[in-house]
Each structure stands twice: as structure tokens, then as C-alpha cells.
Specification:
Elements: E1 2-9, H1 15-44, H2 50-56, H3 61-64, H4 68-85, E2 101-105, E3 109-112, E4 115-118, E5 121-124, E6 134-142, E7 148-156, E8 167-172, E9 178-180, E10 185-186, H5 191-194, H6 196-204, H7 208-236, E11 239-243, H8 247-250, H9 256-262, H10 264-277, E12 281-285, H11 305-308, E13 313-315, E14 322-324, H12 325-334
Parallel strand pairs: 8-11, 11-12
Antiparallel strand pairs: 1-7, 2-6, 3-4, 4-5, 6-7, 8-9, 9-10, 13-14
Helix pairs in contact: 1-4, 2-4, 6-7, 7-10
Length: 344
């Protein structure tokens, strides 16, 4: 069994108002936990656990228009976040800066085809894909444009698929986003560059809604391509090996825009959970020296340094093999022993 999140956009025109009000109530519970935790720390140098916070907030759900399990879920998330970031006091949730969020558990909602009932209200959504499995928990969430979504975390049986016997290494790049060890190249247009003029015009005109809409369009196009590409790869290859290139480190360089547009982290995450769902193997390995190492004789004879980045094809001086730079790197990544630490 595995857990999969399904997201659907709420379509009722009046639903947003009710969800927004409940979102404010969630903020109130979060901020109450934040204040209580800070006060206890200042007096006793101790923090509240999720169990303690649940006792403090017991019975407030009805007054706030929330299901009691939603209040519990907020307390649990607060305690979990505090422990994760090792902080006594977390950021406050406000109406202006915080996007709406309303968590729920399975017993707190009733799902019926293209609608979900929560707190006595029924919210309809666009059924973009069939709902499969058992609802374990979920949430209502709001994006930067103010649109509301319902997210179901479903428990599904492992789907599996017929084995193809194929495996591939993947070299992640900027001009060509993915180069596979078998020579296949997968890429798309640079979305940030495509919309940069429209974005600049909207920013100079101080049209905040237009700026948000353009950013959302870029994000959706990138996400759509990543989903289609990851689904194709997981369906075609039994084993997928990816280099552990760190996008977070490269974002601190002059390549920051291109790295952000590439969306490597999201793509690797999609490959990982889809591989689990279809019983395929996904690995991340150390890709150090993969571009300068000959995939035939394993000698480091490839072009090096910044000047070497322009050389896309080279000949190994040891064995005479001719290599296409990215494909050679992908072959080396495929045959790198697993065990390197994963990068974000």
C-alpha cells in the first residue's frame, strides 16, 4: 500500500467565502498555540506537546466553525513544526500574509463523486481524475490567486506494471533538461525567459494580480511538463538513476534563473514517488566527475574547467572513444554505485 495525494480545485463561486472564514479560524488556533507555547517557555523553559495543545483547545471547534479534528490537526502540525525547526515560537499566521489552510481527517469529511462535505457544508470540485483508494486525511488549501483546492491523501494498493528490462541514467542540465544514457534528450522551452517581458510590464505597472497570474501560469506549465515526463520515464524504465546535482547551491550563482526554471527538485520528487507506486527502482547517486570520465575506459580525460563547459563532444585520449558530453555523463551516472547522499 502507498499514499498518494489527489488535488482538485473547488468550483463553487460562494465556497471561497466560507473556506476563507474557516481559514481565519485555523489561523486563530495556530496563533493561540504559538502564544501559549511562548508563554510556557518564558516561565518554565518547557514547550507544549501536541497532546497538551489538544487539551488546551478542547471544545473550541464549535465556536470557531471548525471540526474538532481540524483543531487537533492544527495543534499536531504546530507541535511537529516546532520540533522540526527546533523553535519555541513559529511565524504568526495572518489574514494578509498567510494562504488559507484547513486540515481535516477522514472521519471529518464525506466524499461523494465530485463533492466533499465538511462542517455541514458541501463543496463541489472539478473531478479532473477519478478518486481511487481510501481517504486517510487531507486539507483545503488556497493558492496565491485566491483559488481554493481540496487535497485528499489516499491509501492505494501498489499498482505495479509489466517489467520492460530497461534502465537509464539521467544527466540533468539547463539547455537540455534531461539527457538519458541511451541518447534520448528531453527538454522544453525556458518558461521564465518566455514570459519575462510580460512579467516586467506587469511589475512596472504595479498590477499585482497580473503578476501573480503570470507566475501561476509559469508554475503550472512547468509542473505539467514534469508530470508528463516523469510518468513517461517511470512507465518505460525499470531502473532510473539520477545524479545528485544540488539546485539549492546553483541558485546562488549566476545561473539562478535557469536553475529555478529547470525545476529539478520537483522532477526528482515526482520520479521518486511514481517509481514507488509502480514498483520501479529510483536512485540518486554522486555525479562527481561524471562529465570528464570516459564511460568506456573510466579515465578522466574529458574537458575540464569553465572553458570545458562549451565542449559538447570530445575524444578520449586513452582509448579513442568519441563521447557526447551529456550522454557520457548519463552513462557514468547509471553505473555509479548507489550510496551517495541525496541532494535537494
Amino acid at each position: 500500500m502507498n499514499l498518494t495525494t489527489y488535488q482538485y480545485r473547488i468550483k463553487d463561486s460562494t465556497a471561497g467565502k466560507h473556506l476563507t472564514e474557516m481559514g481565519y479560524s485555523v489561523n486563530f488556533v495556530w496563533n493561540f498555540c504559538n502564544q501559549s507555547n511562548a508563554e510556557r517557555w518564558s516561565k518554565f523553559r518547557k514547550t507544549f506537546s501536541a497532546f497538551d495543545l489538544n487539551k488546551l483547545t478542547a471544545g473550541c471547534g464549535k465556536e470557531l466553525g471548525l471540526h474538532s479534528q481540524t483543531v487537533q490537526a492544527v495543534c499536531e502540525e504546530y507541535a511537529k513544526s516546532g520540533k522540526q525547526f527546533k523553535r519555541v515560537k513559529l511565524n504568526w499566521r495572518s489574514r494578509k500574509r498567510s494562504l488559507g489552510w484547513i486540515p481535516f481527517k477522514a472521519s471529518g469529511v464525506k466524499v461523494n463523486s465530485d463533492s466533499v462535505t465538511y462542517g455541514g457544508r458541501t463543496f463541489r470540485f472539478w473531478l479532473s481524475r477519478p478518486i481511487e483508494g481510501i481517504v486517510r486525511f487531507g486539507s483545503f488549501s488556497q493558492n496565491a490567486q485566491g483559488h481554493w483546492y481540496v487535497n485528499f491523501v489516499m491509501e492505494e494498493a501498489d499498482k505495479g506494471r509489466a517489467k520492460t528490462g530497461k534502465q537509464c541514467g539521467i544527466d540533468l542540465g539547463l539547455k537540455t533538461l534531461l539527457t538519458l544514457s541511451d541518447g534520448v534528450e528531453l527538454s522544453r522551452e525556458n518558461l521564465t525567459k518566455k514570459y519575462e517581458v510580460q512579467l516586467a510590464v506587469a511589475q512596472r505597472a504595479l498590477k499585482k494580480k497580473r503578476v501573480t497570474a503570470i507566475h501561476a501560469k509559469i508554475k503550472n506549465k512547468r509542473k505539467d511538463w514534469n508530470h508528463k515526463t516523469s510518468t513517461r520515464l517511470v512507465g518505460e524504465y525499470d531502473t532510473i538513476v539520477v545524479g545528485n546535482v544540488s539546485s539549492s547551491k546553483l541558485k546562488k550563482t549566476r545561473m539562478a534563473k535557469s536553475v529555478s526554471d529547470a525545476g529539478w527538485a520537483d522532477l526528482k520528487l515526482m520520479l521518486k514517488y511514481k517509481a514507488i507506486s509502480l514498483a520501479s527502482d529510483y536512485k540518486e547517486v554522486n555525479e562527481s566527475f561524471s562529465t570528464v570520465t570516459c564511460s568506456d575506459c573510466k579515465e578522466r580525460t574529458g574537458p575540464k574547467g569553465l572553458a570545458g563547459l562549451r565542449v559538447r563532444e570530445w575524444v578520449c585520449v586513452e582509448c579513442g572513444s568519441v563521447h557526447q558530453r551529456d550522454q557520457n555523463a548519463a552513462i557514468n551516472i547509471l553505473h555509479t554505485p548507489f550510496g551517495a547522499s541525496q541532494a535537494n
